[in-house]
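Working notes for the structural subgroup meeting. M.R. asked for a predicted model of this chain before we commit to crystallization trials. I am recording the input and output together here so anyone reviewing the notebook later can reproduce the run.

Input as submitted:
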Amino acid sequence: MSSPSIPDSFDVAVIGGGPGGYVAAIRAAQLGLKTACIEGRGSLGGTCLNVGCIPSKAMLHASEQVAQAHHSFADWGIRLSKISVDLAQMMAKKDEVVEGLTSGIEMLLAKNKVSYIRGWASLAGPGRIRVAGLDGDNQDVSAKNIIIATGSEVTPLPGAEIDEKRIVSSTGALEFEKVPNHLIVVGAGVIGLELGSVWQRLGARVTVVEYLDRICPGLDNEIARQFRRTLEGQGLSFRLGQRVIEAKTNGQKVKLVVEPATGLAEGETSETLTADAVLVAIGRRPYTAGLGLETVGVETDQRGTIPVDGGFQTQAAGVYAIGDVIDGPMLAHKAEKEGVAVAEIIAGQAVSIDYGTVPGIIYTAPEVANIGFAEQDLKDAGVPYKVGKFPFKANSRARAMGETDGMVKVLAHKETGRLLGAHILGKDAGTLIHEVGAVMEFGGSYEDLIHIIHGHPTLNEAVKEAAMAIDKRAIHV
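Returned structure, recorded in token form:
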């Protein structure tokens, strides 16, 4: 049954209202295409806004203030007689932020004349979508072009059934009613370390269990090692090279059985760890099950990833896919860029994306940010390169703020000087990395970073000095 207030035929129908989906819908409407955005969650913004990027950043900010109150304020002569945390109020503020942003996206759709259809969508053949409405009514929608932007879901851990109470995903870890005495995080990636940091600052003992022998696979090795030391200094403990066999709730506790990732040696036995809660953060997988892809002849790989060509078109004519459901890093800003690009492609415009300039950011304190190649990647590929490094302890603004952890590392081609990558561990790294990204986007060199006149005193000067260090020209170290 179709709603009388919403037309059922569109030029573009977007399945999914997350960062990729709603951005694609708005851009398509701006280009004069009659557009619908279909979302079954009940609120726009996808995982990122509702239970991911935004609420986690709100909690990271709040918990960082708590940590500073405990450890840093006294250094600046700010003395508090008692520090307490009202977790319920903190959670309420986090929810307020999320609600304000989700309602804002709905207003943006309305402003751009995008039809917002509330319901779960599945393909029902070429050009057709069946929507199971949240109000109980079904609706058939036809569209000349369909964009799949359904995002991703938590990758399950065999032997650990998530109940969002004791054994939780990132969703449950953002809804604890009290601070766990001991939180075990399974997975030393971005999500695990960010949320582990939140609860460590709020008073939990946090143990991170990781299958690999390092944290943050994909990060530059040197930065990852220094990052781990920094987190350990803050109180996080790591059990690397460990495989989780099972996690079982036992009353108010969780029993986690682990053993070496390489297997048990003769005479060894599995080890049982006990915690108040276990966060499963071993990654995410494309959310493509139940979309009816088979009705249009679209096949996925074993993970559920949808193959697309350079214009985001799937195996089916008129069906496109972007964001977490296709190859590439599962990042909101990558999905947004693809959302704009696919709308412009449908409108007949020429578009290109340089995936080499997609930044990655970990919003701990200090932050970690990277762009381009890691040093080990260049070595493995046999690319001749030069490297420059500069520590924040030698940066005047960092010293004035008491934020001296970390460094900037810049990589450039040995022969041409072209920027190949940058890696930052330090205060506001997620902001600083974009200076390098802008130069890389224009095919610039490390000399371009040097020639930019940097304000003094700023943290950005550390980026310039790292570039200068490539030729052993750094001034302040």
